[in-house]
Design brief:
The structure is a single chain. With 445 residues, this protein is of the alpha/beta class. It is 43% helix and 15% strand. Helix 8 links the parallel strand 2 and strand 3. Helix 8 packs parallel to helix 9, helix 13 crosses helix 14 and helix 13 packs across helix 17. The radius of gyration is 26 Å and the shape is globular. The N and C termini lie far apart (58 Å).
Length: 445
Amino acid sequence: MLFSANKLNRAKILFYAFQGKFRKIAASFPQFFHKTAENIPQFLYICAGKIPQFVMQSLYDQFNRLLELTPMVFFREQHKTINWRVRILGILGQKGVGKSTLILQHIKREGLEKESLYVLADDIYFSAHTLVELAQAFFARGGKYLYIDEIHKYDNWSREIKNIYDTLPLLHVVYSGSSMLDLKQGGADLSRRVIEYHLPVWSFREYLNLLNGWSLKPSTLNEILKGKVDFPYGKHRPLKYFDDYMKKGCYPFFADEEFETRLRQIINTTVELDIPKYAKMTIAATQKLKKLMFYISRNVPVKINFSSMARDLDLDRDDLPKYLEYLEKAELVSVLRIKSNGDAVLRKMDKLYLHNPNMAYVLSAQNPNTGNSREAIFFCWTKQKFETLESTVSDFEIEGKTFEVGGRSKGKKQIEFVPDGYIVKDDIEYAYENQIPLWMFGFLY
């Protein structure tokens, strides 16, 4: 034993005082802590080893429990494209798309359990400790890979990540968080230090793979426009699966009996907690944001007219662009923008959709409009790969190509004289000439 039980207890109290838990004790008993100072070298040794083990044991227990429950049957394609070797890595995306699972799968797949620690940024541990303190204690015990989930729930997170980057050059940090995170939020600019990846909602292809245990490959836009996608056909029919996907398939928990409740909770938490925390909104402003979200869910697609929207909602017109930006960043809505006659894109919001049709089924008082759902999912998929804009003659424009989205009976009138125009049809299985099945665009990623 390094020193007596009394001195060990004093060291523990001093340790907590440094961690912010008993700072008043340190101020109240200066003589006590002065006596302990003679054992500072031994005390620091314990702080770096035994005491962190005592303090952080619950974090390790939670990490191991989650790791045991992590499925390894299916990996999203993004796991291969992420450069896991960088020192500071961010994985952002909408709530519920599988960021936590992706991280835990990586730890398990690479056999990094003994050198890693996975924590939730809103864990009660951080009511008395900081990220920097955790990183220092973890590194002192031989840790190499620190994974921090839901980092947007931690105040001043970017400042502390920068501190970790600057002071612990051998430690690798991976964090996940809301898609609305800004690298300059939290008091420090991380844009030159962090590599960030975005994890989108699940594509139709990914849904099919997870549901059936398949390994269907993604297709390029040119392949899709030729009707070439990796679907098995035979006894399997794409439209049979597509209807279910439109209702639940954008999220990996589609088989959950409480799917609608869970998705509604995700939407409510984002609107009521995450966005207000990110934007430092007042209670009154939060209520206005909820009012706007409800309005959008009942009226999509919404042709954006700030004056009329402000009048209908009894909101300040100047607040609306800011609120819409928050909802878009959080991936609750998608904003379609207009392209000018030249090459430059006018940053003018023109039309609003809910981010994906699953949300429409959950939020609508009745079955959502089919036409709106078709446009929403086409926009949701294509914007992950391209800059999708509003067409001057039809619905969408992508890299000079025009797309009109509709049902099986949709005609060619709107794009009749468009040189590179396509009809994107729901309720058809195969491509014919410039008529492309809507479901095929779900193979873009």
